[in-house]
Amino acid sequence: MTVAEATESQATEQEKGTIKITVCMSLSGQAEGAKDVYAEFQKLIEENQGTAELSERGGCEMGQVGCRGYCSRDVLVDVYVPGQPRVTYERVKVANVPQIFKDHVLGGKPFARLAAKPDYYETLEKQARVALKHGGNIDPESIDEYIKVGGYETLKKVMTTMTPEQVRKEIRRSGLRGKGGGGFFTGDKWEKTANAKAERKYIMVNGDEGNPASYMDRSIMEGCPHQVLEGLLIGAYAIGATDGIIYTRSDYSIAVRRLNMALESARERGFLGNNILGTNFSIDFYVHEGMEAFIGGESTALMSSVEGKRPFPKAQPPHSSEKGVFGYPTNLNNAETWATVTEIIKQGADWYLSMGPENSPGCKTWAIAGNLKYAGLMEFDMNTTVGEIINDYCGGILKKKELKVVHIGGVTGGFLPPEKLDTKTDYESLIEAGAIMGQASLSAYDNSACVIDLTRFSIGFNETETCGKCTPCRIGLTLIKNMLDDIAEGRGKIEYLDKLQAMCEEINVTSLCGLGETAVKSVLSGLKYFRKEYERHIVDQVCDAAMCTGLYRYVVKEEDCVACGACIKPCPTGAITGGTKKVSAHIDMDLCINCNACYQACNFLAIA
């Protein structure tokens, strides 16, 4: 369903002549005040109910929608006037509501200042909206709205016209790969689990994202939980699962609530529970709220968490398809994969194969950030290159600055230079370039970013989040973090670079799980493409982006200093002399600890 089709669908759902207003009630929308915006619109509708002005326009009703991906532009409000194109308003505040209501709802003329520009709609149309298909178009808490757009029809098709073997064959033929970062072929996992001999089999959703730059699964579960649930039911039928678990983080409160609502309403309609749709197939699911730990998203650690144990990764084999949660065969895929399963069975393997390269068919949702015009969630054909994402979909680097570095894969990903913009976003192409898909985050930065500073954050995060079970990860990441700190604070030595390279390569091959294996990607890719920046920090003692405060050198511009003495008192080390009796201040850098207190205290911009 394209954006245009979704808009038409919304318009035809309403009574003829009725205007509809929808507000994005995703987590980011609510964080920006969506509840208050919704309440203000509702209040104005009630106040104008029955008036000649609103009656002549056919009346008005309110609705909520889930995440469509443009989180940086929340609160997003859509106004549907029958017979006219949808108008989306961006960054709506409560104070803007009366004007939108007066101009558009009552007056019939969009409020131009906040109305989205044409490139907003164009960017949506260009995307391959599969897992994000219904985000921003239907109420995520209404099973009826999901059914109106064809929801659960695919499940009916599977249950009444296809055998489990036929479903597995279609998924295998589609080439669908797990969208959690590893890229394992989904059909192979299903086949192994289906062929495993056991009295019970589990099927699970991995809805845990600990990467601070990723939120695809959360947004998909928030935006259309029924699409995830339908895909999960199709998978359960295909592998003969007896039990199901939706694993997510306890701090995903909106997703947890909507998932539980979806489960309850699906049971009421006969899509879940005993004898689903009148067949002899029965299964039920529950939502497991896991702890907020990065390691909790690793498959074996996740299963340990479900069992009530500390989320420690386990060595494989045996694989979870043979011995998973509670010792039974288990099939685990992330929420985006399950949402995609629904569409593959609905539209066929050939449709999915028409997207992406041969080794990575289909599409992938990315979390995009950085110095870009458009940021948020977008879903692309895997033939799309990094450069096309940045320039064609995201509007390029802001303020006409130049791109310096692209960080792909989040805290376990790597850095690519502008010369690698032609890299495709499939699994193998990214690995070959020195990055990984990981949890599919992409951040593009201009020259205001420092690669060493970005690397310190990634390594520091991974050091904090390691489970501590294996020595390479537990000790190695700390040693790497200490070296990076030395480089950023002026204590680095040129021989550190070869030591970092060797240590990272060793950690990459000796760590127990994928976290340790990929945690060092930021260092390895940084040394590969940005070694001169490391050398400049060490040899020249300069951070050109001015992000490494340990390399700051403070000087007093005598021509601007008025000798007011304001910089002396906040200095904790007594590094500043002069500054009174018409004598300009002087900073002794041997005593300076780069705390920045003097810079903040000077009201005359005399300290640089």
From TrEMBL:
Source species, domain of life: Bacteria
Pfam families, A to Z: Complex1_51K, Fer4_10, NADH_4Fe-4S
Swiss-Prot/TrEMBL keywords: 4Fe-4S, Iron, Iron-sulfur, Metal-binding, Oxidoreductase, Ubiquinone
The protein's enzyme class: oxidoreductase
Regions that span the bilayer: none
Entry keyword Protein biosynthesis: no
GO molecular function: 4 iron, 4 sulfur cluster binding; FMN binding; metal ion binding; NADH dehydrogenase (ubiquinone) activity; oxidoreductase activity
Residues in 4Fe-4S ferredoxin-type domain copies: 552-581, 583-608
InterPro entries documented for this protein: 4Fe4S_Fe-S-bd (IPR017896), 4Fe4S_Fe_S_CS (IPR017900), NADH-UbQ_OxRdtase_51kDa_CS (IPR001949), Nuo51_FMN-bd (IPR011538), Nuo51_FMN-bd_sf (IPR037225), Nuop51_4Fe4S-bd (IPR019575), Nuop51_4Fe4S-bd_sf (IPR037207), Thioredoxin-like_sf (IPR036249)
SMART domains linked: NADH_4Fe-4S (SM00928)
E.C. designation(s): 1.6.5.3
Record-stated family: Belongs to the complex I 51 kDa subunit family.
Listed name of the protein: NADH:ubiquinone oxidoreductase, subunit F
